[in-house]
Amino acid sequence: MLKRILVAMLALLMLITGGCTQKPVQAQSFALDTIITIKILSGGDDEDIQAALRHIDQCESLLSAHRSGSDLETINTSEGAAVSIDPLTVHILSSALQIAQQTNNALDITLYEVSRLWDYKSDNPQLPTSEQIQTALSFRGMDRICIHDNTVTVQNTRIDLGAVAKGAIGDEAAQVLKARGVTCALLNLGGNIMTLGDKSDGSPWIVSIEDPDGNGTIGSLQFSGSKAVATSSGAQRYFELDGVRYHHILDPQTGYPADSGLSSVTVLAPDGLTADALSTALFVAGEDAAQTILQQYYPDCAAVLLRCDGTVRVLGDALFIRE
Ligand code: AMP
Ligand code: MG
Fold first, then answer.
1. Would you put residue 6 in left (φ > 0), alpha (ψ -120 to 50) or beta?
2. Residues whose Cβ atom is located within 5 A of ion ligand 2
3. Which helix (H) or strand (E) holds 12?
4. DSSP β-ladder status, 184-189 and 34-42
5. How many A from CA of 266 to the centre of ligand 2?
6. Ligand 1: nearest atom to the Cα of 280
7. Residue 164 CA: which ligand 1 atom is closest?
8. Is 162 close to ligand 1, i.e. is its CB under 6 Å away?
9. Is the pLDDT higher at 123 or at 84?
10. N-term to C-term CA, the chain
11. pLDDT, position 119
12. Closest Cα to residue 133, out of 257, 233, 239?
């Protein structure tokens, strides 16, 4: 488990190149099943970091499917009844519905029953049968989620926010720092990176993208300002049986691990929720659909696609320096 967390942590390496007016302050915590690191480069101190970390804990209490009393637990045990939820949960569910629509349901947060069949945490994993997959797939459908003001009704399905929660909570943490006057900071939520502001010496943020095969990095994204970077890759969580790797990003059409010809997708977006949701969705959708989706709906986002043959394609307007 620890190894997998470390692999997830290393999915994106942060390289910061100088230029701070104050001594950077940094703190870490364990939340969202991963390691969270927040570093302030200017405009704040450890109290600001602790406030952001506390807020991350509060968000986790709201969004974890396994915490008693969380919005997710309430929704997933509601048996079709309308339930009242926090504005943050409303925001995440509505955004997921919209992104699902724009990606032809490549993003599908109702795969809970299917995901449960793929036992990535077991030391002795078993392949689900195709009957089990078909049955589990009968419980999926984004049209089963209905949001009205601050209430949601979920019929005959359960929700898994694994593809979007870290990004959305990163946005929340960055917002806390900003509201407290922090002008320059870097947040790493288990590989989901958020930047706040510009470095005082004008040098760019540099975020390296790890090679999913463990051979160092494939290159780095360089950019300025407040942005989010998320990577989805089959190497982040998987098991192997008879030489075949079964990873955790599922094709909602088949219920099996997505096999779109891509081995990793990194998205650079203005916010964490979009970066996180899109990295998962584009990984499932594949290269051609990814290009269409970005052009049509996300002109302010860019993506670095690593193909299974090791070649790279950059979509959108981003400075990517190949290793
Ligand atoms: P990420 O690491 O952000 O790509 O999210 C992957 C996680 O999201 C998985 O571990 C599942 O919990 C969930 N998931 C898997 N496939 C999908 C999908 N097609 N759409 C939405 N969530 C998914
Ligand atoms: Mg994601």
1. alpha
2. 163, 276, 279-280
3. strand 12-15
4. antiparallel
5. 10
6. 4
7. 3
8. yes
9. 84
10. 29
11. 86
12. 257
Report the alpha-carbon distance of residue 280 to residue 166 in Å, rounded: 12
Q: What is the pLDDT of residue 199?
A: 96
Q: Which-ligand-closest: CA of 228?
A: 2
Ligand 2 centroid–CA 132 distance in Å is 25
Which phi and psi angles does 12 have, rounded to 5°? -130, 125
Report how far residue 126's alpha carbon sits from residue 316's, in angstroms, rounded to the nearest whole number: 40
Measured by CA distance, the residue closest to atom 1 of ligand 1 is 163
Please, are residues 9 and 32 in contact by the beta-carbon 8 Å criterion? no
Whole-model pTM: value is: 0.93
- Taking residue 304's Cβ as centre, other Cβ atoms within 10 Å add up to 25
How many residues in the chain? 323
Query: What pLDDT digit, counting tens, does each position of 248-305 carry?
Result: 999 999 999 999 999 999 999 999 999 999 999 999 999 999 999 999 999 999 999 9
Residues in CB range of 23: below 8 A, 6 or more apart: none
Whether the pLDDT of residue 47 is over 60: the answer is yes
The protein residue whose alpha carbon is closest to atom 12 in ligand 1 is 162
DSSP conformation letters of 38-58: EEEEES--HHHHHHHHHHHHH
Cβ of 284 closer than 6 Å to ligand 1, yes or no, is: yes
